[in-house]
Amino acid sequence: MHFTFAIALYIPNYNLQHSIINTMKIQNDTWLNESITIEPTEISTEFSESNISTVIIDPTTWLPTDSTATHSDSESVSEDGIELPTISPKKKIKPSTSSTKKVRICPKMALAKEFVESLDWDSVLFDSSHDKCYCNNCYPVTWANVTDAGGQKYVIPRGWVRIGLYVDAAIVGVNDIWNKWIVTFHGTSLLAAKSILHNRQFCLPGDKLIDGTLLGIRPGHIPDKKHIYTSPTIAYSSLPVYSAKYDFNSSKNYCAYKVQLVLQCRQKPNTYSVQGETIDARTTRLCPFIPNSEVEYFTEIRGSLVAYGLLVKVI
């Protein structure tokens, strides 16, 4: 292989005593320099595109087809004091031959999602980034039963599936609820839960729900005391007096189920009071991790609670 090209310097309005044209040859993949001296020539001072033809050859982009040497993009080759940067050949990306892997969805999660979809609630109420399954496969029995949030312990809702709810970014930013607020549970009905999510606040007894009915005081609670009740354990919040059961027939597996709902919340510290159970449990231990004397929280401050998960239990 043998190429020759010339690099000439044009200087207008200048009589050269002699001119040297440097030629560079590429022979057998090697750069060679040669000099040829020519007789003095008077160079025209008139310059126009019509009488000059220019061919530019960039040697840095030439790669021998039979070369096997490779360099990184930052490397360069020096020949006779001339730095010649090299460019690595582009690697061809082969298309993946592996088949697309399907993401496995837990059957418990799939069933809970099917139930929630059957409610036909507005999709803007939900945020799948907060979804979590607490079945034994997704949350093994060897994992902790009690954990901490905002400096207060709460019990993991084993056996339940959390369908994530949308939380206003302003509330999160102003209050730093993920780091500073505790986790509690609020047993509720389908109608009350829908009203809470649509109105973006919790309901107190006497409030009108989304269908126009009034929210009453549950049996066992002090008459005329309008409070919102929560608990650090779902064992208490899911009791029948707080969380009713609903029928659900799956259109996918054609099985009949009972379903319960509980809201998982972030609750602002120092805005609630703690008291014992109010369902007349007496000596019956309601939760193995929280004593009966500390199982119920109550507050009158609506804005101290933010629901971020709709907990669903399909039985």
Q: What's the gist of this structure?
A:
The relative contact order is 0.12.
Tell me about this structure.
- The chain has 315 residues and is an alpha+beta fold.
- It has two domains: 2-85, no CATH class; 107-280 and 289-314, no CATH class.
- Helices cover 12% and strands 28% of the residues.
- The chain is built from five helices and 16 strands.
- The chain has helices at residues 107-118, 169-175, 177-180, 190-199, 234-237; strands at 2-7, 19-27, 30-38, 76-79, 82-85, 132-133, 146-149, 152-155, 161-164, 182-187, 228-230, 245-249, 256-267, 273-275, 296-299, 305-314.
- Strands 6, 9, 10, 12, 13 and 16 form a six-stranded antiparallel sheet that branches. Strands 1-2-3 form a three-stranded antiparallel sheet, with no helix packed on it.
- The longest helix is centred in the middle third of the chain and has 12 residues, at 107-118.
- The protein is globular, with a radius of gyration of 39 Å.
- The N and C termini lie far apart (81 Å).
- Residues 2-38 and 40-87 have low confidence and may be disordered.
